[in-house]
């Protein structure tokens, strides 16, 4: 990967695009386990099937009660475990709408498309796996879902020094990746700072999610009527002002270790940033989406009825299926990681209550 970067100056967004999505070097494109014990990180949707079952409860109610079209589109579905859990619960809970419905997976990674096809084989007649929006033949109406999608999008990195804004770039020197910051010239970044009214203090670094902004408008082009669920970790504009976040949030995950230096292990580790919730809301509204609410994930799951999934049991064995199932539910509503995640709901050409 260093050879591909040699004699070039890349923005952080270009570096992340190369390190994560390049067909030859990209981390997400490699045929290796990335999620779970054998990978580099764990997602909340990878913790058993419970979270998929709870979201399925919500999706089915929207379909049955408010006549939302029985189409679910998941973007960036990893191994397909969340989709399997949703389909399993959907079929069990509402066989009629299930038989009329379809679950569409949009996944850029060939490796993950293969994994999804394997995982979802029992539901193959109700699943469609595609690589991009371009393969959606008609305007989509239904439910759009993503989990930890935007946190892996490439971002530009800026820093304020002595009253001036700099953009940080990456170069190869002596076979090492080094950072160089130069006065900001990118007009799209400058526009983002103005339209989002970003105020930085000296010494503060900040990520500029131009890819997320672009994605919102691209998604808007292919949806007609939709309820859009976004699950991720991030901060509001007010939370970004906290001194603890002065150095930004770009990090790596390598074999379940948090790596502060995003330039280590290029192409071999996951790169992630905390998303800007107010930016998602702002550009969604520019696209014509109505903001519904932002919940902490544990609050969302409780309102969605996750406690109804607890299993009654009298087995003292702590490793029994029922005990493990109930522990997983507790972890989804009581752990620190559960409280770090949020769920944002937006709607296009719909005005439906998520909870009643």
TrEMBL record:
Keywords: Methyltransferase, Transferase. Pfam families: Methyltransf_28 (PF02636). One of its GO terms (molecular function) is protein-arginine omega-N symmetric methyltransferase activity. Signal peptide: none annotated. The keyword Methyltransferase applies. One of its GO terms (biological process) is methylation. It comes from the Bacteria. PANTHER family: PROTEIN ARGININE METHYLTRANSFERASE NDUFAF7, MITOCHONDRIAL. This is SAM-dependent methyltransferase.
């Amino acid at each position: 990967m260093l050879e591909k970067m040699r004699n070039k100056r890349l923005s952080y967004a270009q570096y992340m695009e190369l390190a994560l999505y390049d067909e030859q070097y990209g981390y997400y494109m490699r045929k290796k386990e990335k999620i779970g014990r054998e990978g580099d990180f764990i997602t909340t949707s990878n913790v058993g099937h419970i979270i998929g079952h709870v979201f399925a409860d919500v999706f089915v109610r929207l379909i049955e009660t408010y006549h939302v079209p029985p189409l679910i589109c998941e973007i960036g579905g990893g191994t397909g475990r969340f989709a399997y859990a949703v389909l399993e619960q959907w079929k069990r809970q509402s066989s009629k709408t299930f038989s009329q419905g379809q679950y569409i997976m949009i996944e850029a990674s060939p490796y993950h498309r293969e994994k999804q096809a394997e995982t979802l084989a029992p539901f193959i007649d109700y699943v469609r796996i595609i690589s991009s929006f371009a393969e959606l033949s008609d305007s989509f109406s239904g439910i759009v879902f993503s989990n930890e999608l935007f946190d892996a999008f490439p971002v530009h990195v800026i820093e304020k020094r002595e009253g001036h804004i700099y953009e940080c770039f990456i170069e190869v020197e002596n076979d090492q990746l080094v950072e160089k910051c130069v006065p900001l010239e990118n007009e799209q970044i400058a526009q983002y700072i103005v339209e989002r009214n970003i105020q930085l203090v000296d010494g503060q670094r900040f990520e500029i999610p131009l890819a997320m902004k672009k994605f919102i408008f691209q998604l808007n082009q292919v949806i007609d009527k939709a309820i859009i669920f976004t699950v991720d970790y991030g901060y509001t504009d007010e939370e970004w002002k906290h001194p603890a976040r002065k150095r930004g949030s770009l990090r790596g995950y390598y074999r379940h270790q948090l790596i502060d230096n995003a330039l280590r292990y290029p192409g071999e580790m996951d790169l992630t940033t905390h998303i800007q919730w107010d930016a998602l809301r702002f550009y969604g509204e520019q696209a014509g989406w109505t903001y519904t609410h932002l919940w902490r994930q544990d609050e969302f799951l409780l309102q969605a009825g996750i406690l109804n999934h607890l299993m009654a049991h009298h087995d003292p064995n702590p490793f029994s299926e029922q005990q493990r199932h109930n522990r997983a539910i507790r972890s989804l509503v009581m752990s620190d990681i559960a409280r770090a995640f949020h769920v944002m709901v937006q709607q296009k050409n719909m005005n439906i209550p998520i909870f009643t």
